[in-house]
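Exercise 7b. Backbone tokens:
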């Protein structure tokens, strides 16, 4: 590598945990889709920041900070805040990258500030300059240049003496108001691993100086970064002429998360190519076939591939098969394996395969028609995956619900499991991590396709989830009594015990009715219907529930509180893996409102998103947090073990749990089960068809 060659890779993270120099932000975003976790600290301050590059221009961050001695009421003060950054302009030959940012827009306001920053690269040197408001305008400030648009921008509404505003509100009335100040700095990329930074900070650290005796002796900060590998970065710094800081960052690319791009599953069965003789010359006729023997052969062959055979029908030269792919494969890969099995077992006179994947709850979703000759022609073609998808025909499977016969030995079906469990709750205001570990046993009895009874028992072994302060909610305590459920739980609790019926009420329609102990805190009845065409990215659902609050011991008793709740839901998917969902209706506390969810899903099933709920409950009555909001992260076990598995790592990061905007947790809702087996998702997965 020549001395003149620039070796800039990704931006480093400042001590606020976002792309920046030392403590100030810079303009370059992370690579699209990247997820970062940054943990660091200095005198009496520890910050952990989770950031996600939601699009090439939009960055979203959640920060959790420990401020020792900041509050008299809470000597160990845990602060939660959200940031948003947007890249206005990418760096070009002559122009810098320019980014606008909002810091701490939904937290306590301790870190509240806004900025406009530009960064330009000159070989191994990067220069950054910016203007900031709020915290970024607190040192060496001057009259707000936006004041030319009116006196509104000249003054910034004050903050409480404690340095803490009403947490959770989007205080748009402060944005870009009050005095402004300039900040800037330079970064020098010494080698492909080592980087030095020097900056001038416009953050006066007013709240920390007042409440924590923080010494800010200088506006200059210096830092050094050492990149251990493409994912891990170490940083050290000397801040404000008074304190040493250290930080560790880890970046994760959901688009390429492990070293197993093809997975560790076994090789697919070979595809049998028919000879040139006609079916009549070989003596095959539909009347001479024995479907019962084909049932047995198909079931055995699918079982060897980890697939579950459901039903089969032979109609002239067309063979129909229903199956469940269970925990072994993506649906597209499973369809490919079923196709290969059928080439081996079906007589040469069968020229068309209709393959029908079924949900885990027995609902047929799509019918995929594949010409046998296309399989024989395209197996080794360079564009075989795309061509095979283009030639396949996708239809709704509603008309197939009654035309396929089932072997007598499949239903009723019984399945069970036993093992350890771990539940984690992050970012409680009084404790950064609450946990529970124990053992659980579950069982499913399926009377017929779509008719099930499910139960689960939990036995707690250890945990600290019962240390929450008593609820001070002004609303019915539909969620904030969760501490009482932990304190008064029986040694063995009944987590679930319910029956459910899944059915197809019509073309493009899916239905569910569930009744019993639906979740830890509620039991009752729930009904849902979903309209989702097989080739559409759009869907509409409606759900209605009538539930009663369960007893604190989580056995069979109930309390007096009961309510009817329900929502109308709108779903849409767009290019790039973006999922939009809007739920409008009534929540558990009787409040009315809507929840908007936005997530990004990658081809490997990793999904990262955020949601916010606004109801008719006033912010002050809602309590801490002002409204319900959170971040969701789902990582399939496939990406951990390199082998397809329908289980997943799921975490919901909710800054605070309150009663407003609370929704029933019904197992087996329809949308995600259905969409996984429809054309838009299968198209994304079809590259796995031949694997």
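Sequence design result:
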């Amino acid at each position: 590598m020549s001395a003149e060659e620039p070796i800039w890779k990704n931006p480093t993270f400042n001590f606020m945990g976002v792309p920046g120099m030392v403590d100030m932000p810079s303009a370059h975003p992370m690579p699209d889709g990247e997820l970062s976790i940054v943990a660091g600290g200095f005198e009496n301050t520890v910050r952990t920041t989770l950031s996600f590059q939601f699009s090439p221009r939009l960055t979203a961050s959640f920060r959790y900070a420990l401020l020792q001695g900041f509050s008299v009421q809470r000597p160990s003060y845990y602060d939660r805040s959200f940031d948003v950054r947007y890249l206005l302009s990418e760096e070009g030959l002559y122009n810098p990258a320019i980014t606008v940012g909002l810091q701490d827009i939904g937290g306590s306001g301790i870190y509240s500030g806004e900025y406009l920053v530009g960064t330009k690269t000159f070989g191994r040197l990067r220069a950054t300059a910016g203007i900031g408001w709020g915290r970024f305008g607190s040192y060496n400030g001057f009259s707000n240049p936006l004041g030319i648009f009116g006196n509104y921008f000249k003054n910034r509404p004050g903050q409480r003496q404690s340095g803490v505003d009403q947490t959770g509100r989007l205080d748009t009335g402060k944005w870009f108001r009050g005095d402004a100040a300039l900040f800037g700095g330079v970064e020098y990329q010494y080698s492909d691993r080592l980087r030095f930074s020097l900056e001038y900070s416009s953050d006066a650290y007013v709240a920390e100086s007042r409440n924590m005796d923080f010494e800010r002796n200088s506006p200059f900060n210096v830092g050094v970064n050492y990149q251990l590998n493409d994912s891990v970065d170490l940083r050290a710094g000397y801040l404000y002429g008074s304190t040493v800081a250290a930080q560790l960052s880890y970046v994760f690319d959901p688009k390429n998360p492990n070293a197993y791009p093809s997975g560790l599953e076994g090789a697919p069965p070979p595809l049998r190519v028919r000879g040139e003789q006609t079916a009549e010359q070989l003596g095959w006729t539909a009347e001479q076939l024995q479907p019962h023997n084909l049932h047995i052969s198909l079931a055995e062959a699918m079982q060897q591939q980890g697939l579950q055979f459901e039903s089969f029908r032979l109609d002239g030269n067309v063979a129909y098969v229903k199956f469940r792919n269970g925990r072994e494969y993506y649906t597209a890969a499973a369809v490919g394996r079923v196709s290969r099995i059928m080439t081996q077992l079906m007589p040469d006179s069968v020229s068309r395969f209709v393959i029908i994947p079924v949900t885990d709850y027995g609902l047929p979703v799509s019918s995929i028609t594949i010409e046998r000759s296309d399989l024989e022609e395209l197996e080794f073609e360079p564009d075989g995956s795309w061509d095979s998808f283009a030639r396949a025909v996708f239809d709704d499977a509603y008309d197939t619900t009654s035309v396929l016969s089932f072997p007598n030995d499949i239903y009723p079906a019984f399945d069970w499991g036993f093992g350890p469990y771990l539940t984690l709750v992050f970012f409680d205001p009084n404790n950064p991590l609450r946990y529970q570990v124990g053992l659980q046993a579950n069982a499913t009895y399926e009377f017929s396709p779509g008719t099930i009874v499910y139960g689960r028992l939990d036995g707690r072994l250890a945990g600290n989830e019962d240390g929450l302060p008593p609820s001070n909610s002004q609303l019915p305590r539909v969620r904030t009594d969760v501490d009482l459920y932990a304190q008064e739980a029986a040694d063995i609790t009944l987590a679930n015990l319910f029956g459910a019926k899944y059915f197809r009420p019509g073309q493009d329609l899916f239905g569910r009715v569930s009744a019993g102990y639906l979740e830890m805190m509620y039991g009752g009845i729930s009904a849902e219907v979903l309209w989702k065409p097989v080739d559409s990215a759009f869907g509409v659902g409606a759900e209605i529930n009538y539930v009663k609050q369960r007893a604190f011991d989580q056995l069979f008793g109930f309390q007096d509180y009961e309510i009817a709740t329900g929502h109308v839901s709108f779903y849409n998917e767009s290019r790039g893996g973006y999922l939009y969902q809007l739920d409008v209706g009534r929540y558990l506390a009787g409040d009315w409102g809507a929840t908007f969810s936005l997530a990004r899903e990658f081809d490997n099933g990793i999904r990262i998103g955020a949601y916010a709920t606004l109801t008719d409950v006033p912010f002050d009555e809602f309590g801490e947090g002002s409204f319900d909001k959170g971040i969701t992260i789902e990582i399939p076990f496939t990406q951990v073990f390199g082998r397809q598995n329908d289980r997943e790592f799921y975490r919901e990061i909710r800054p605070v749990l309150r009663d407003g905007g609370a929704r029933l947790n019904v197992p087996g809702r329809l949308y995600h089960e259905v969409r996984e087996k429809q054309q838009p998702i299968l198209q994304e997965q079809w590259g796995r068809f031949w694997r």
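Instructor comment: The two ends are 39 Å apart (CA to CA). The longest strand covers residues 558-574.
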